[in-house]
Amino acid sequence: MPVLRALLALLFAFALLAQQRRAVVKVVPAKPVTRTTAEEAAARTLLNSMTFRDRVAQLIIGTANGDVYGTESEDAKKYRHWVKDLHIGGLIVINEIEFGSARNANPYAMAVFLNQMQRLSRLPLLIGSDFERAASMRVTGGTQFPHSMAFGATGDVSASQYEGLITAREARALGVHWVFAPVADVNNNPMNPVINIRAYGEDPDQVSAHVTAFIEGAHQDPAAKVLVTAKHFPGHGDTDIDSHIGLPRLTIPRNRMDATELKPFRAAIAGGVDAIMTAHMAVPELDDSGVPATVSPKVLTDLLRNELRFKNLIVTDAMNMQGLTEMFNPGEASVRSLLAGADVLLMPPDPDASIRAVMAAVEQGRLPRQRINESALRVLTAKASLGLNRRRLVDLDDIADTLASPAAADRAQQIADRAVTLLRNEGDVLPLAPSSEPCLVLINSLRISQQGQRLVRDFRRKATRGQVMLVDTTMPLHALQATMEGKTCSTIVAASFAAITANTAEVNRFLTELTEGPTPVILATFNDPYMGANFPKAAAYLTPFSSAPSAEVAAAKALFGEIEISGHTPVSIPQVAPLGAGIVVAHRAQLAGR
C-alpha cells in the first residue's frame, strides 16, 4: 500500500504539472530549463518509491553507438541488460571509429534504437550526446556548423546563440535531451592536443560571451527543451596532454585561474547552464594530492558547489578515459567521483561494476546514502523538467524536416565563410586567378579519411587546370617528394587536416622544402591553426579554424576570391599573429570594381 500511495501521488503531481504547462503554452520565454515546484515534488515522490539500488543506477549514463541491432546480438543483449535489468539512468550516443575515421550514426537508425531503449526502460531514459557542432558532430545529415573556434573568429555571439537554438531542435528531434556542449575551455596553450579548435578562443571574456550565447539559444525554444553542459571544469585549455590517453596537469596560480579559466564557467552558471562536466586532470593549486578533478572534493564540492554556488547537475567526463583509469579501477573511480560531488557517472566501462562498488561503499559507511539521494533527485528532476514523463519517444517523420533545414544550412555556411582568416599574404598571392594552374596538396593524418574531400571537389571545379595530390603523415619523405615530381604549378595550396597529435616530422620537412622553393605556397590549416609557425617562408597563411565540411567549402571560396576574407584570429599564434589579427581581402567582384 505505501508504494501504491506513492505512485498515485506521483501521477497526481505529473497531472498537475501537465495542467500548469497547458495553461502557459502561449508564453515563449528565452530562459533556461527551470525546475518548478511540481517537477521537484514529482521527482521526490518517484525517488521515495524507488529501491536504493535503483537510485544508484539512475546515476549511470551508458555508452551507445546509435545503431539498430538484431535482438539476439551481443550488443542488443548488453543494452537490454543495462536498461531493463540494471535500470540505468540514460545513454550517451557516440560515433565509433571505423577504418581510422569517424563514422557518424544514421539519424533514423539512431532514433529507432533510442525509441526501442525508451520502451524497454521502466523510467524515461536521459539521452545525451556531444553535439558541439549540433547533431552533425555525431549524425549524418545534421546542420554543418563549423567548430567553436570558427565562431570566435567571426566575433559574432549571435551566431553562437543561433547554433544553440538549432542544436536543441536537432537533438530533440532525434531523441537526445542532454547536449554536452558548449566547450567553456580557454585555449591559451598552442600545444593543446584535445581542446584546440573546439574552444571559442583564448580570451576569457570572448569565450564567456559565446558560451552564454549558446546556452541562451539552446534554451530559447520551449518545444525543444534540452540540458546544456559547460565543459571541462575547471578549464582544460592550458594543458598539453590529451586526457583520453594520460593525466594532464593545470599548473597555474589561483589568481590566474580566477581571471581566465574560471571566467566562462562563472558566466555559464549565471546564464542558467544545466550541467557542468568535470575534467580528468590534476589541478595542484586546488588539490595537491595529484588526483584528477573528477574525483576531487576540493574541486567539485568546495569550489564548484560551495564557492561558485552551482546547484544543477555535475557530470563526469567519460570514465573510460586513461586520465582517470590509469589511477583508479572503474568501481573505485565511480565511488570517488560521487564522494567528490559528481551527480552522474558518464560512460563507466562496466556499469554493473560501478553499481556494485557504489552499493558496497554505502554499506561500508564510506559513501553516505544522502549523497546518492541528492544526486538521484537532481537526475529525476531534470527528467521531469524535460517533459520525459509525458513523451519519451520521437516521431521519425519529424527528423528530416528538422535536420534538413535549408535556412539553418545557409546560416551555418555564412558563419563558416565569415570565419576564414588570412594571417599572411605576401605578394597578394590570394585570391587565386581563375586562369591560374594551382596544385592542391591535401595532407591527412590517416590514409583513409573523409576530411578534405569536399575541398578537393570544390578545388577541381574552380581550378579546371589545377592538379591534386593526396598525402598523409604516415608517408616517408621520399614518397612525399615523389608526389610533386614533374608537376608544374603556378601556386601550391598545402591544405593540412593533420591532427596536432599526428607524427608530422616527415610532412614538416616536405612542406619546408616546398615553402623554400620557387613556387609560392599557400598554407591552409584546418585542424591545427597553430602550425603556421613552422613554415615562416609560406607566401600566405589561411585558416578557417575548423575541419567541418562547411569550413572546407568556405576555404575553397576564399582561395578563389568568391567571398570576402574577414575573420580575425581568436587565438594568438606564436611567430605568426597576435590575438585579433586578420588581413581583410575583398571578394573578386569587389576587387574588379576598384
Structural account:
This protein is α/β, with parallel strands linked by helices and 594 residues long. It has two domains: 402 residues, TIM Barrel (Alpha-Beta Barrel), CATH 3.20.20.300; 173 residues, Glycoside hydrolase family 3 C-terminal domain (Rossmann fold, 3-Layer(aba) Sandwich), CATH 3.40.50. Helix content is 40%, strand content 12%. The strands form three sheets. It has an eight-stranded parallel beta sheet with strand order 10-9-8-7-5-2-1-11. Strands 12-17-16-15-13-14 form a six-stranded mixed beta sheet, sandwiched between helices.
Question: How would you briefly describe this protein structure?
Answer:
By secondary structure, the protein is α/β, with parallel strands linked by helices.
Question: Which key terms come to mind for this protein?
Answer:
22 helices; Rossmann fold; 594 residues; eight-stranded parallel β-sheet; six-stranded mixed β-sheet; disordered N terminus; alpha/beta; TIM Barrel; single chain; 2 domains; globular
Fourth-tier CATH superfamily name of the largest domain: Glycoside hydrolase, family 3, N-terminal domain
What multimeric state do the chains show? single chain
Number of helices: 22
How many E strands? 17
Strand order of the largest sheet: 10-9-8-7-5-2-1-11
The total domain count is 2
Beta content = 5-15%
Largest sheet: 8 strands, parallel
- The CATH class designation of the largest domain is Alpha Beta
Structural class label = alpha/beta
Computed over alpha carbons, the radius of gyration is 25 Å
General form: globular
> How far apart are the termini?
85 Å
Percent range for helical residues?
40-55%
CATH topology of the largest domain: TIM Barrel
